[in-house]
Specification:
The protein is an alpha+beta fold and about 325 residues long. Helices cover about 25% and strands about 20% of the residues. It is built from 9 helices and 14 strands. Strands 8, 9, 10, 11, 12, 13 and 14 form a 7-stranded antiparallel β-sheet that branches.
Length: about 325
């Protein structure tokens, strides 16, 4: 097994409970808490913890594709690699170690959303369904033959982290199913349609910046897509004060104002409820429920504004106009 984080753990545990022998784990090196913040991977029990509880060898190379990494993997004598959110692209030499090659548990309905952050980008782009695809690994990025696939519906308020946790369970079941088929010699694959390929590149902190000029549904999809990392953020511009960074934790499109376009520029405060604020966005409005100012605890949108004595012209937007 090769994997890291919460998405990989159900597959690892399912393989350990299957009739197949797991000969070892390859996972990312231990990181400090500060270093882990730069990762989209959610942590659960920990892949290393699960392996050590079962007395399995654990490899944690910084780079698996080095001669040393390949040699260590070879010593485990695997017949097959099962990979889920490992975090490194595998070389031809690594994939050539096991006689049966490798399979990958990928959290999208391939060929859509190839890459490191498929769940986040699916939500960002407004997809209402996503899924898991088990592919035969090649040196191309998520380009191998599809061996199994299953779709799920995305909830209208579901975050990327929440969806990934559900997909992890589906992926575990499909992975064991495919390993069973490989062992029985009955597995069948189908080629991906190259014309339908889309990309899901690794997220950066900059991807979290909210563009209030987008339509309300798009802004709210963005907020959902950026959780748990890097989170959606904006800056509160208040006359006479330095712009303040604010994380947007929960927001939804407003139905209150109907089809009436905002009279003010995107990002402008339009009103306040008991627990929320109404913000102009594109051709409509966003209800912002929960925010987190830099260095503070999460709070309601209304509490944020009450503590800052908003004046005309105060607004959310990029750090610099």
């Amino acid at each position: 097994m090769m994997g890291t984080g919460l998405f990989a753990e159900p597959t690892f545990e399912a393989l350990l409970q299957s009739p197949h022998q797991v000969v070892g784990l390859v996972t990312q090196p231990d990181r400090t808490i500060g270093a882990e913040r730069g990762s989209t991977r959610q942590t659960g029990r920990g892949m290393k913890t699960i392996a050590l509880e079962r007395g399995l060898p654990v490899l944690q190379p910084e780079k698996i594709n080095t001669p040393e990494g390949v040699a260590a993997l070879t010593e485990l004598k695997p017949d097959l690699l099962v990979v889920a959110a490992y975090g490194q692209v595998l070389s031809r030499e690594v994939l050539g170690v096991p006689p049966l090659g490798g399979i990958n548990v990928h959290a999208s309905l391939l060929p859509k959303y190839r890459g490191a952050a498929p769940v986040a980008w699916a939500i960002y782009h407004g997809e209402t369904t996503t899924g898991v695809t088990i592919i035969r690994m090649t040196t191309g990025l998520d380009a191998g033959d599809m061996l199994a696939q299953e779709a799920i519906e995305l909830g209208v308020t579901e975050t990327a982290g929440e969806a990934e946790a559900r997909l992890a369970v589906v992926g575990a079941r499909l992975a064991v199913q495919v390993v069973d088929q490989i062992a029985a010699g009955t597995v069948q694959g189908r080629k991906q349609d190259a014309a339908l390929v889309s990309k899901a590149p690794k997220l950066t902190k900059e991807n979290g910046a909210v563009d209030w000029s987008r339509e309300p549904v798009q802004v709210c999809n963005h907020v959902r897509a950026m959780q748990p990392w890097p989170t959606a953020y904006t800056f509160w511009h208040r006359q006479g004060h330095v712009a303040q960074r604010v994380t947007i934790i929960k927001a939804e499109p407003s139905q209150i104002m109907g089809e009436t376009p905002p009279p003010s520029p995107p990002g402008t405060l339009q009103g306040m409820g008991a627990d929320n604020i109404l913000v102009a966005a594109g051709n409509g409005y966003v209800v912002v429920w929960i925010v987190q100012p830099a260095g503070k605890q999460p709070m309601t949108g209304a509490d944020f504004i009450r503590g800052r004595k908003s004046q005309a012209g105060d607004h959310f937007g990029p750090e610099r106009p």
